[in-house]
Amino acid sequence: MISYRLMKPQDTPGVFRVDQDCFIHNWSLESYQNETENILSNYIVAELDGEIVGFGGFWLVIDEAHITNIGVLEKYRHCGIGDSIIKEMLSLACQNGCVGMTLEVSADNDPAIKFYKKNGFVKEGIRKNYYGNGIDGFIMWRHNLEYEK
């Protein structure tokens, strides 16, 4: 059974492994270690039999939650883990007084865009060449943080 909880410092190697499996523009292990000490950071991990199989994080900036990353190991995708992670993130953001959650997503990442739309996010802007090589970033927002069960 998959459990969801806040990330601990000892989880960073597992989170980094998920990052390596999911992203081209990877964060470093040190970046995730630093996140465990960042007072703005809030990370949820999905754990199965002692293995981190997914994670999601956001920075709490005044009354907004800015998603940093959400990732699930490829062999565990399409099982609802990402939806559960974002549900936990929305709940945590609400508990911390957030009124909105935002992120940037690569304009060419159709699966991620579809995932965020399914979870109540809408495209509200574009950051030109945000990812380099002419790839824009879509700015997406969710203003109602209550999660429909």
Automatic annotation (TrEMBL):
Superkingdom of origin organism: Bacteria
Subcellular location per the Swiss-Prot or TrEMBL entry: Cytoplasm
Cited NCBIfam families: rimI
UniProt protein name: [Ribosomal protein bS18]-alanine N-acetyltransferase
GO MF annotation: an example: protein-N-terminal-alanine acetyltransferase activity
GO cellular component, one term: cytoplasm
This enzyme's EC code(s): 2.3.1.266
Pfam families in UniProt: Acetyltransf_1
Function as written in the Swiss-Prot or TrEMBL entry: Acetylates the N-terminal alanine of ribosomal protein bS18.
Gene, per the UniProt record: rimI
Enzyme class, spelled out: transferase
Homology family: Belongs to the acetyltransferase family. RimI subfamily.
InterPro entries for this protein: AcTrfase_RimI/Ard1, Acyl_CoA_acyltransferase, GNAT_dom, N-term/lysine_N-AcTrnsfr
Recorded catalytic activity of this chain's protein: N-terminal L-alanyl-[ribosomal protein bS18] + acetyl-CoA = N-terminal N(alpha)-acetyl-L-alanyl-[ribosomal protein bS18] + CoA + H(+)
Keyword vocabulary terms for this entry: Acyltransferase, Cytoplasm, Transferase
N-acetyltransferase domain mapped to chain residues: 2-146
